[in-house]
Amino acid sequence: MFTKGSASALTASALAFLFGVTGADRAHSQEVSGFAALGVSTFGPTIQGGVRFTPSLGVRGLYAGGLSGSETEEIEGVPVELDGTLGGLALLGEFYPTQSNWFVAGGIFASNTDVSGSTTDTFTFDTGTTVTGTLSAEATFANEIAPMITTGYRRGFGRNGNWGVAAEIGAIFTGGAEATVVSPDGSIAAPEVAEAQADLDAELPDFNVVPFLAIGVSYHF
To answer: Using CA atoms in the order 132, 126, 195, 205, what is the torsion angle rounded to 10 degrees?
Structure first.
């Protein structure tokens, strides 16, 4: 049978244990920790590395890409040889609003994404000129270094929680797309190249923001 004194002692012991564990966890959570991660994203495979300095703040670097391809596509009856590269580098600061696994990140994305095409054909221009020659074009994001924001969640698993999974969603403010048209061999005169440039500018997609989605597996140390 518990007496008043023994109950008080038990309560005190329980509180001491609770606050001791909480304090240990808090001290552990305040230690600087790092992670490395592999995954996939809307910009291709990703490699990431980061450091969490405090329960609320961290920094992360990200490389996405390694994807490229080429194909011949018929555009308005003209065969065009297309080459494309997808990817970029990001440097992001991270804020953990609840000092948990949920984070909000912001920083910059340096893109190396581009699409280029070339064709040799007989072209008829609005001036009435008909010319056989070569036209080449290259399109990139208007902002090669663009603002980027994301939010996501990381969760550890395993005996020590060193391994983890993460997912995030966000946006890259690319400022739209820009394209340049040239006649690499000079076979088409400048006025006709300028007309081709104007036609391509009118057909470029009207977007200023590109979505970013990523999932991956990480190791924390």
So the answer is: -110
- Per the domain annotation, does 8 fall within a domain? no
Structural domain including 135 reads: 32-220
pTM for this structure? 0.77
Assigned domain for 7 exists: no
Here the CATH number for the domain that contains residue 122 is: 2.40.160.170
Contact (Cβ atoms closer than 8 angstroms) between residue 78 and residue 58: no
The count of domains in the chain is: 1
Residues with Cβ within 8 Å of 164's Cβ and at least 6 positions away in sequence, in order, are 35, 154, 155, 156, 157, 217, 218, 219, 220
Q: Single out the residue of 39, 35, 24 nearest to residue 101, CA to CA.
A: 35
Residue 11 resides in a domain: no
- Contact between 70 and 83 (Cβ < 8 Å): yes
pLDDT digits (tens, 9 = 90+) for 169-219: 999 999 999 999 999 999 999 999 999 899 888 888 888 999 999 999 999
Chain centroid to CA 14: 47
38 inside domain: yes
**What residue has token string 């011949």?**
72
Per-residue pLDDT band for 76 (boundaries 50, 70, 90) equals low
DSSP 86-137: EEEEEEEEEE-TTSSSEEEEEEEEEE--EEEEEEEEEEE-TTS-EEEEEEEE
